[in-house]
Amino acid sequence: MLVTCPNCGPREVQELRCAGESTTRPKTTPTQRELNEYIYFRANEAGLQREWWFCRACEDWFLAERNTVTNEVSRTWHPARSPEGSAR
Amino acid sequence: MASGALPGRIGAVSRLDPQPHERIDRSKPVSFTFEGKAVDGFEGDTIGSALYASGRRVFSRSFKYHRPRGLQCCSGHCANCQMTVDGIPNVRVCTTPLRSGAAVKGQNYVGSLERDLMQATDKLGGPFTPPGFYYKTFIRPRKLWPLYEKILRNAAGLGKLDPAGARTERVDGEYRHADVLVLGGGQAGLDAAIEAAAGGESVVVIDEGPEVGGGLLADRAGVTTARALADKARAAGVELIAPAIAIGLFEQGFVPVAVGNLLLKFRAERVIVAAGIVEQPLVFPGNDLIGVMLPDGVRRLINYWSIKPGERAVVITADERGLKAAEDLEAAGVEIAKVIDLREAEPPNIEARGRRGRVTEIHVNGQSTKCDLVVMSGSPQPNYKLLAQAGARVAYDSARGIFVPTDLPENVEAVGAVTGDVGTPAVPSPVLGYKGDKCFVCFCEDQTTKDLKYAIREGFDSIELSKRYTTVTMGPCQGRLCHVNSIRVYAKATKLDENTIGTTTARPPYTPISMGLLAGNPQEPKKRTSLHHLHKDLGGRMMWTGQWRRPHSYGDDPGAEAQHVHKALGLIDVSTLGKILVKGPDAGAFLDRVYPNRFSDLKVGRTRYGVLTGDAGRIMDDGVVARIDDDTFYVSATSTGADGVYQWFTWWNAVWFMDVQFANLTGALAAINVAGPNARAAMERVSGDDFSAEGFAYLDAKHVTVAGVPMLALRIGFVGELGYELHFPSPLAEHVWDTIIAEGADLDPKPFGLEPQRILRLEKGHVIIGQDTDSESNLLEAAMPWLVKNDKEFDWVGKWATQQVDDRGLNWLLVGFESPTGAMPVEGGQVVVDGKSSGRVTSVRQSDELGKVIGLAILPTALAVDGGRFDVQVNGKPTPMTVRLGAFYDPAGEKVKS
Q1: Complex ipTM
Q2: B134 contacts chain A (CB < 8 A)
Q3: What is the mean pLDDT of residues B445-464?
Q4: CATH architecture entry for B1-156
Q5: In chain B, which residue's Cα lies nearest the Cα of A2?
Q6: Per-residue pLDDT tens over the stretch B229-282
Q7: Shortest CB distance from A39 goes to which of B251, B615, B646?
Q8: Rounded distance, CA B335 to CA B343, Å?
């Protein structure tokens, strides 16, 4: 599986670390249910999913859109260099 | 020595006279041993061809019935020639190049390959060994199953691994890239490769044969033709790799390729499969006898290795291949007793008979013909397995009796015979026998037509179920020689057509490969500090801490090493600590967000202890943070947590985009902790800076020059005595260490290892993250409420979960204890309350300084009061312990502040 690091280009997946679905941290003190959902619950999409990845080569984080069924990574981007940011 | 033939016996062979296009080099003899006896071959031989030339006909014993088996395909497809070579079991010797000195042995027999005592299972076991027999027969009494299992495992099987044997060979992996990867180096594959290379693409061809050429190699001048083609390919810039096995064909052009002990992990833009065909056996009684061979197997023996395969041959063929074999046999001086072309003849009834497992005659429609060689050629089957495994569909062509791959996945192409371009072979009857039931369908697993019919009768009427029940296609040939025949036998028995029955799922690996190859090189990345060799010279007993090698101690008595720190002066290498520079206008604000306590108010030149938690409130790591200047913090992390903390920080900032930068200096900087009552004096010997109690106070961080090296010194209570932790560039570590030791010789400096450090830190009640905490530990129950500062403007990471622990109330507390009886619990020992497990011991050590056994334990909150008593299981008996809150040693901290 290949993943394109925004800095390093296409890399074998072993050179990167997938840190899982991107989540949204509550902006204000969450209820216990909201906190549990944020910490423990994941959508686990069969399809397009937004994930955090860490590149071991440049030691930078980036976001990726991966189809969890086909392992196709359609898009990767560095949140700080994208207008939509990290959406967290 | 040219002929190892056994003179005068039918079936004995010799090398042919030198042939113009043979592969062997008769000027270069190669010796090896078989079952301890010397055998000679030539360069260019495989182990299999050399053994055959020497007169050997029995190459293996079958999996279940221990029937003698001999060469069948000579191209690495079947499992008949599996032997143990230099201790490695299940090597197909027909394609394994001959190596001088190789020690080759047969496998799966008792006695000898020629006279295997276990062959009784063939004579007696037949009626008693239908599919699944062991589940049915050996089920009662159930408690005897382990015994049955042991016997059965010994009775059936392949080669044996030495359970006590260590890994003897190095395996490695390598990443490779190519525009085009061609799987199969026959005519079609090489043509495609040359064309792609001419178009400017980088092209690699891999082939499982001893050299590229594929089917060409069986032809009379095949070696010459194949080598000319290979030269043309190389000249076009194509890289050729053989023998090599494509293990599987995966998404995005990923193809792992086994090349001996090297696993090439190929990534290609396009994959061209040119896997050719697999010759198929015919199904008739006695079709597994030695001497019943596939046409290209026979032709390779003759044309490739100049071996006369037999004396008198019968050919039964569904296509041209058998006729070509007959031609080559005749040219080699083998008498052709009979040729049956299934395209012309009505399907005959055939039975091969033999003596001692070797074919001696063949009955065709009741008429007997003496022979020592039978060439059988069923419909040539496209070798579609890699394509099917990659996602192609496979459709049955009933006019030709073959399965053809269709609907290829993206970026995968197929060329040559694998596409179904195999001419118009006859469709032989699924079973050509008229009596007898030992028509082998699956040679690897000893499955006959009778076994398959038995399975159908028992209700295993889908091919996938039957496969699992009978294990047909699940042997080492991975279905290459039995897949089509088993489906066709099934179709006949169930009166369904082959497309309805369908094929079983094709899965990697394409061919069996060693587990070692998948496991890869047993690399355990080892990190050494820049003082590693110094520790070794000092007698350090090295141990693993994560990936680091660190000295456990420098002798037999870690207790005494700890005592020396209390009394005089100790040096410990703490270079393994994580060291992260956090710098920028937002550095303080950033740390306030990720730590429970506040760092933005830390004064320049001061240090503060910090613990990291996630938003789940669980403790992740700890360390000391020093403020270097307004914008710069120096964060230390645990030895095993350094990379994790660095990733944690950078990840949060990928979320927050604060104006702060991070540099992981862990490897760049060495760190030495100098501790003990003599520490100040020692520092004053090697530095002109102010190390006085007033000028360099407890928890200060200062830039100093020690032994001429500018560095950062932290005055922290690491091991509970007056101490300075020196951080400086790694290359200078030995110089700094040696200078402190030399200049302070009269202060009695001694190195101390990790074990004395644990004793010293436990005496202070210091918590080790990961030892005294686990994945459930939170700040409050780990008794660190003083770290929690909830008045910060930003909700620090872990705040909410920590608050929820506070709201629900504490269930546990991490506390110190001592053992009044001196009994020593083990770490992990259970705390017992009212006969129930209620907590555990996390750390325990004998403290010579205190003359006590001390430790830390996680206790129910109610018990966690100073002086409280609780029981811990010691040697199976509840043993009393006493809770001690606060440090065991120097609770007021006078020593560290002195």
Answers
A1: 0.95
A2: no
A3: 86
A4: Roll (3.10)
A5: B252
A6: 999 999 999 999 999 999 999 988 999 999 988 999 999 999 999 999 999 999
A7: B615
A8: 22
